[in-house]
């Protein structure tokens, strides 16, 4: 695709183009969102308005304006625009575009903007082929990717480009895009009206993707001049989820989700998770709740639960949606089926309550820092090094006087905590001087595992653990 953006040709193309293409911004001031890149003095605005031949990598979710921004960079000074899709282009195509750009630059001085969509799909060899043109500025490369470029773009190419991160459009941004499309001469020219609840659903369907909302609007507008919620649902074949991210449903659904995990009902948990996905809930919010729940309601009963939740959150940042829905679902299932214990949150909150009530006291003398001259003279020292004693534990006071003997952590005896409770009992006896050394079985018995112990028949009767 090569163009100098002739206005007449653009208008002719618009008459048959999809609504999302027709409504693509033609000036920087028409762009909705991404103000951190386009505000006064922001890097991308300086690049567009200053005509600097600087290559950029645009990283962001679909429908956030990557292609639009590439075209604006080209249109700003009528530079040649060439587009390659990493899905279909090969090394030969890359080299051909670069040769054309070099020839145009040498013969007429015309600069070329090369837009590479989905650059993460290029192999290392294909990306290597771009390096000379970027380094010598034969082209201004604008590479777009939905995946983390630190994993998907080779380091030499990334180091020669300016990395700009695009954010998902807010609900207000999407609403502004749809409203503009309804009124614009390039859009629906005011000939179509949309009910408020249908407009709300369009915004929810978008999930921060302007192109998705315009595609759905065009599908509904093709059926009638007045778009209702029912018509919109039929047009896009997707039922409206009664869910307001800023209202009661937001809190009700996440509450149902967490309580279903806590109650070990995996089917209910998956239902609420699907509702949040369909409603366009921020997946990072879901991931954060899973990480909290892993320690709050499972804790040491299955120490691997926190690892799984954190891994799902990291996977979300790495690959994004919709693929990360699978990782979040796996974490939800793991946490739901895990044995439950609130002993961790109970321990820390109990300790906090004592501190806030003034039960602090001074650190015992033998535990204080003694790495300075004169420490012995003021009574600091006498610490007994645990590794010098059998079992690696020795009786001595660790807690300040006001809380000596206080027991904050009380394992519930489910899952791995059944082993932890045995270990803890032996440790406390030794630390208080009631026993000489930790028994070998107690010292070695605590082994955090990915698979918690099978519940005993008594535990199954409690119905706290999936059978």
Give the SSE layout.
Layout: E1 2-3, H1 7-14, H2 19-22, H3 35-38, H4 43-50, E2 56-59, H5 66-75, E3 80-85, H6 91-107, E4 112-117, H7 124-135, E5 140-145, H8 149-152, H9 155-159, E6 162-165, H10 171-183, E7 193-194, H11 196-206, H12 210-221, E8 226-227, H13 229-236, H14 248-262, H15 266-279, H16 283-298, H17 304-319, H18 324-337, H19 343-356, H20 417-431, H21 440-444, H22 457-462
Parallel strand pairs: 2-5, 2-6, 3-4, 4-5, 7-8
Antiparallel strand pairs: 1-3
Helix pairs in contact: 6-7, 10-11, 10-12, 11-12, 12-13, 14-15, 15-18, 16-17, 16-18, 17-18
Query: Major sheet: size, sense and barrel closure?
Result: 6 strands, mixed
Helix content: 40-55%
Q: Which class of secondary structure composition applies to the elements?
A: alpha/beta
* Number of E-type strands: 8
**Overall pLDDT level:** 81
Q: Determine the CATH topology of the largest domain.
A: Rossmann fold
Trace the largest sheet across and list its strands: 1-3-4-5-2-6
Provide keyphrases for this structure:
Rossmann fold; two-stranded parallel sheet; 4 domains; Helicase, Ruva Protein, domain 3; 49% helix; alpha/beta; disordered N terminus; 467 residues
Entry summary:
This protein is of the alpha/beta class and 467 residues long.
Commentary on this structure:
The protein has 467 residues and is an alpha/beta fold. The protein has 4 domains: 2-165, Rossmann fold (3-Layer(aba) Sandwich), CATH 3.40.50; 171-236, Helicase, Ruva Protein, domain 3 (Orthogonal Bundle), CATH 1.10.8; 248-337, Zinc Finger, Delta Prime, domain 3; 343-413 and 417-444, Orthogonal Bundle (post-AAA+ oligomerization domain-like). It is built from 22 helices and 8 strands. It has helices at residues 7-14, 19-22, 35-38, 43-50, 66-75, 91-107, 124-135, 149-152, 155-159, 171-183, 196-206, 210-221, 229-236, 248-262, 266-279, 283-298, 304-319, 324-337, 343-356, 417-431, 440-444, 457-462, and strands spanning 2-3, 56-59, 80-85, 112-117, 140-145, 162-165, 193-194, 226-227.
